[in-house]
Design goal:
17 helices; alpha/beta; single chain
């Protein structure tokens, strides 16, 4: 009996706390523990070749070379590695990952980085220019997301540039935690739909908060009644996504933020993915639900400049309604021998060049450029949706604008994922239900890319119909994760995956 069948036959669907207790008992049995380790080890060994494709083909440095290899050789090695990887993302085979990628834009951002490569915003006296650029990135993002331009300072919007969406979310959750503690609540909670990004789990774990995950219904967006029922006396913040990563669907932020406002708690709109695309889709007349500061109950937003803002990887923006809320994000030290110390974000020293690149992307593209990019992306995504719906056996989930997820009632969709990977496509696998998605970017809006995707997908579906029991790939991993009730085993498998990534 394999692990999945064991889990189904013995336990089925029961309380996760009971499952965790049973799992601990089972792991204490030697033959069960050995079986788990053997099956997980086999999966990781198979993945190792995929995750370490350069072994034996490129030099490895496990300690400092006795004499430096020289700049020319180092550059040559890096260029060789980049050349092997460039084709897939440059030709549009990746879901998300590279959101612009045009060679001229990349070259422009690289020049910006070179100009500001030594800048560190921690030393504002040496590089006041970075403070200027970051403040303008924040202001431009706030303006895009419905912030009032004047009026009561505590109703206006303020924010910070961060290293990415996860840090933006983490800082926002810290602000709500510390505000709740200042109000006398020692056990603040986050209420979020099950589709909300795992960054909220990370934030809850690191900050000592409780995350109340609310399952979504058949529509795959947060249910207002269910979210209302999950809110309690310790709720510090309610979360909605615009859109959620799995299905590209926008939660009912208007209703959810009003619930939070009436309760007197915060509402965080996670627009990491859609913050620089949805506003332009709305300008084009597309049906975009309200999700930003136009709603009085929205008190913070995260939006990634390094996604559809077309900056280089490593920047995001977190925004707050009012300076008072933002101040709970800060950390200051008043009694250190090294002097007075204050940091607005998690890192102390930061790469000011990344902020300069975010500023340069925004001002060089401008509103007209973002509108044109949004138009091209939405047109490509509409073609993708129609094409997937026309393939027998596949179903598009919901009616997304630019993240197109599909599932199947007839086929193992993870086998379809593997068949697409064999055709060079890097797509995202989803769970509950088993599904796959393509996040459409400017890479896909180029001539012929969408047509190639749909042709390859039709061939992949036909291949799975011919050979439904094929071995290997990601299908066994997601098959195990989707049916095994013991989530600790899945967590151990993911930890093993990270081990493989980080070890030579």
């Amino acid at each position: 009996m394999n692990l999945e069948a064991l889990g189904r036959s013995v336990l089925g669907r029961v309380d996760p706390r009971i499952l965790a207790a049973v799992e601990r008992l089972l792991k204490a049995i030697p033959f069960v523990r050995e079986r788990i380790e053997r099956e997980s080890g086999a999966v990781l060994a198979e993945l190792g070749g995929t995750l370490r494709p350069y072994r034996g083909r490129h030099p490895s440095y496990l300690r400092l070379p006795a004499a430096g290899i020289g700049r020319a050789e180092a550059l040559s090695e890096l260029e060789a590695l980049a050349a092997e990887e460039r084709g897939r993302w440059e030709e549009g085979f990746a879901s998300g990952a590279v959101y612009h990628g045009d060679p001229e834009h990349v070259a422009f951002l690289n020049r910006v980085y070179a100009i500001a490569s030594q800048a560190n915003p921690l030393h504002a006296d040496l590089w006041p220019s970075i403070a200027k650029l970051e403040a303008e990135v924040v202001a431009m993002t706030a303006s895009l997301l419905g912030a009032p331009e004047e009026g009561d300072p505590e109703r206006r919007v303020f924010g910070s540039v961060t290293s990415g969406g996860t840090e933006s979310i983490l800082l926002a959750m810290k602000a709500y935690r510390d505000r709740a503690r200042a109000r006398g609540d020692a056990s603040p909670e986050i209420v979020a739909p099950s589709t909300a990004h795992p960054a909220f789990e990370k934030a809850a774990h690191w900050l000592g908060m409780r995350l109340v995950r609310v399952p979504v219904g058949e529509g795959h967006v947060a249910g207002v009644a269910a979210m209302r029922g999950a809110m309690g006396r310790h709720t510090a913040v309610v979360v909605g996504s615009a859109p959620c990563f799995p299905y590209g669907l926008v939660d009912p932020v208007a209703e959810l933020s009003e619930l939070a406002r009436r309760k007197g708690v915060g509402f965080h709109s996670d627009a990491c993915l859609g913050g620089f695309l949805l506003p332009f889709a709305r300008k084009m007349g597309r049906p975009v639900p309200d999700f930003d500061f136009r709603l009085p109950g929205v008190t913070s937003i995260s939006a990634d400049t390094h996604k559809f803002g077309y900056a280089a990887k490593g920047t995001s923006v977190v925004l707050y309604r009012g300076r008072a809320l933002r101040r709970f994000q800060y950390e200051v030290s008043t009694d250190w021998e090294g002097g007075l110390y204050a940091s607005p974000t998690i890192a102390g020293s930061r790469a000011g060049a990344l902020s300069a690149m975010a500023w340069a992307a925004l001002v060089s593209i401008g509103e007209d450029g973002y509108l044109d990019a949004a138009r091209r992306i939405l047109e490509a995504a509409a073609t993708v949706k129609r094409g997937i719906a026309a393939i027998p056996g596949l179903e598009v989930i919901g009616d997304p604008l630019f993240v197109v997820a599909f599932t199947s009632r007839e086929l193992d969709v993870y086998r379809v994922l593997d068949a697409m990977a064999a055709r060079r496509w890097s797509l995202n696998a989803l769970q509950r239900p088993p599904a796959v998605h393509l996040c459409v970017t400017l890479r896909h809006a180029r001539p012929g890319v969408v047509e190639r995707f749909l042709a390859d997908l039709a061939e992949a579906v036909a291949e799975v119909r011919r050979s439904p029991g094929a071995k290997g790939g990601m299908a066994p991993v997601y098959g195990m994760a989707g049916t095994l009730p013991f989530r600790g085993v899945v967590a151990d498998l993911l930890a093993g995956y990270l081990d493989v990534l980080q070890e030579p």
